[in-house]
Amino acid sequence: MYKQQFFIRLFWCFLASSLVVVESAEETSIEELLKWEPPAELTERFPYYLSGVDNEGAQVWVVDFGKWDNRDIVDAGGQRFQDFKKYVQQMYTRAAYKNLKADPSKYSVVIMDWDGFTKEKASHIPGTLASIDMLRSFEKFARQGGFKRGFIVNANFLFETVWRLGKPVLGRLNELVEVFGTNPAKWTPNLLKLIPRDQLPEKFGGAKGHQYEKVFG
């Protein structure tokens, strides 16, 4: 029964996302965006990381999207939600802007970990729409250059359903991102083909005791 209700809710969720343009964050120059100081609430609740570099010297970024819980912010709307969207835009800009005129081999790699994406989060339609918008934002930056590869790992049934139903509205993202389930044996070899072990945290098959090069948040 729950799965049936979940599919129905997701159907309407993606129908809405395909018909309604989610309000974008206020247009800001790259320089202004990178100088912007996000509210402490955002940096504390939604960290992301520069992990290291891949075999070609391109930056490797990690985002624990599954642990992010934006439901209260989305429900609040107003400036809190605008700041959240601006924060996501700043994150992608920070990860991509240095690469926009670089050789494609130097475009960034992003690992999106969806461990922690619960049924409560998935069934919250405004929050799910905001998550779709985050993926759309990634697709927009990828289209402009700056990202060469994305990995989604720990995708459970809930996320895989969201991803499958969302493919029609996610554009080129399907070409750039590989989606893997919750079995590390399936995706660890793929990561290690592109990224040295000492540039990854242990949870992704990397070196024990690996420290992120930089933590944002």
Automatic annotation (TrEMBL):
<dbReference type="Pfam" id="PF00650">
    <property type="entry name" value="CRAL_TRIO"/>
</dbReference>
<keyword id="KW-0732">Signal</keyword>
<feature type="signal peptide">
    <location>
        <begin position="1"/>
        <end position="24"/>
    </location>
</feature>
<protein>
    <recommendedName>
        <fullName>CRAL-TRIO domain-containing protein</fullName>
    </recommendedName>
</protein>
<dbReference type="GO" id="GO:0005737">
    <property type="term" value="C:cytoplasm"/>
</dbReference>
<dbReference type="InterPro" id="IPR051064">
    <property type="entry name" value="SEC14/CRAL-TRIO_domain"/>
</dbReference>
<dbReference type="InterPro" id="IPR001251">
    <property type="entry name" value="CRAL-TRIO_dom"/>
</dbReference>
<feature type="domain" description="CRAL-TRIO">
    <location>
        <begin position="38"/>
        <end position="212"/>
    </location>
</feature>
